[in-house]
Give the backbone structure.
Amino acid sequence: MKIAVIGGGAAGFMAAITAKESKPEASVTIFEKTDKVLAKVKVSGGGRCNVTNATFSIAQLIKNYPRGGKQLKKPFNIFNTNHTVNWFESRGVPLKTEADNRMFPKSNSSQTIVNLLLNTAENLNIRVSYKSKVIAIIPSDKGVNLSINGENMFFEKVIIASGGSPKTSGLDWLTKLGYAIVKPVPSLFTFNMPKNPITALMGLSVPNVITSIKGSKLKQNGPLLITHWGMSGPAILKLSAWGAQDLSKLNYNFTVQINWLGINEEELRSQFISLTSSRKLMNNHNPLEIPKRLWHFMLNKLEIAESQVWNELAKKNKNRLINMLINDEFEVKGKTTFKEEFVSCGGIDLSEINIQTMESKRHKGIYFAGELLNIDGVTGGFNFQAAWTSGYLAGKNSTL
Ligand SMILES: Cc1cc2nc3c(=O)[nH]c(=O)nc-3n(C[C@H](O)[C@H](O)[C@H](O)COP(=O)(O)OP(=O)(O)OC[C@H]3O[C@@H](n4cnc5c(N)ncnc54)[C@H](O)[C@@H]3O)c2cc1C
C-alpha cells in the first residue's frame, strides 16, 4: 500500500508515523513544498514548543476550542492529552507542566520535539520529499493521483495535512475538488488601543478580570496584561479566539468592556458599605484586588482628589467609581498578532469529513489532519493537541 502525506508539519509527521507503525509494510512518503519540515514546531512556544496542555478531562479539554470543540469529543476519546504525554514520554521525551497547565519538553527546547519526530520517521523508513508542492489531487476509483513538480503519482491513500491558510485563495486546490471551506480569518490576537492613556501602565498585569465585547454575548475571564499598544493576556486572547469571526466582520473596530475585579455589582456595592465608612485616604487605601498603579490611574481619570477620604466620597463619584471598576470601556482600533503565533480559524468544513476517522465523505481514501481543518484552539498547547489527535486518527485509519 502506498500512502502519501501532504505537508511536513506536526499533523503530517504524526499521521505518517502512525500509519507506518500501524502497517509497517506500507510505503509512506511525506511531500513538503519547502526545503524544511516542522518549521512551526521549531519556532513554537517561543522556541520551547508548548506540546499540549495538562487538561486531562475531555469535557474540559473541548471547551478550549472556539471552532471544532464539540466535534473533537469523539476523536479525543481515542487520542487525547493523556495519549500525547504517553506518546512523547514513552519515546524518551519527558514533558513538564507549568503553573498555567501548558506542557513543554523538559529540555525547554523545541528541537527535542523536532529531533524525535525526524528520527522516528527516519527509523521507520518514512520518505520525506522536500521541495515537492502538491498542486492537484485527482481522485479515481482505485486511489488518488497527485500532481507534484510536473509528475503524476499514484497512491492508494492520501492524507492532507497542509496547514492553515490566511486566505481562501490558498485553499483553491481543495475547493476545486468540491470541498466546502469556512473563510479563514485570524484567531489569537491582542487588541490595539492607539494613544489610549491606559497604555501608560504597560507591563501591568491584573489577575482576574472579565472581558466582554459591547453589543455581543462574547465574554471571557482570566489575567489581563496592559501593553504599550493596548491589551493582551489570556482574558483578551481567549476573547479574540472566540470572537474571531465577529471581530473580523467589525474590521477590528469595537468596544471592549472590562470588569477589573471579576465580581458583580451587588458584591462590589456590599464591599463599598464598609469602605465608605473608613476615614482613610482613598489614594493610600486600596483594599480592592487591583494593582496600585491601576487604582491611582482610575482615581486620576475620575478626577478624585488625592486628599479625598473614603467616608466623604460623594454618591455620584461612588457610582462612577463602581461603574469603572466593573464596567470600564475601551475603544479598540485594530489588532496585533500574538507573539507571531499566527493561527487561522476556518478551513475545511467539518461536515466534509467523518470526524472519527478523518476520512473525506466526498472521496474515499482521502484524509485530513491539522490546522487545515476548521478547528482551532486558544493559546496553551491546544492547537498542537488538535494536530496530534487528527494526525493520529488520519494515519491509523488510512491503513485500515
Ligand atoms: C510562531 C508560532 C508559534 C506557535 N506556538 C504554538 C504552541 O506553542 N502550541 C500550540 O499548540 N500551537 C502553536 N502554534 C500553532 C501550531 O504551530 C499550529 O497549529 C500547528 O503547527 C499546525 O500544524 P499543521 O501540521 O496542521 O500545519 P503546519 O505546521 O503549517 O504544516 C503544514 C506543512 O504543509 C506544507 N504544505 C502546505 N501546502 C503544501 C502543498 N501543497 N504541498 C506540500 N506541502 C505543503 C507547509 O509548507 C507546512 O510545512 C504556533 C504557531 C506559530 C506560527
Summary: The mean pLDDT is 96.
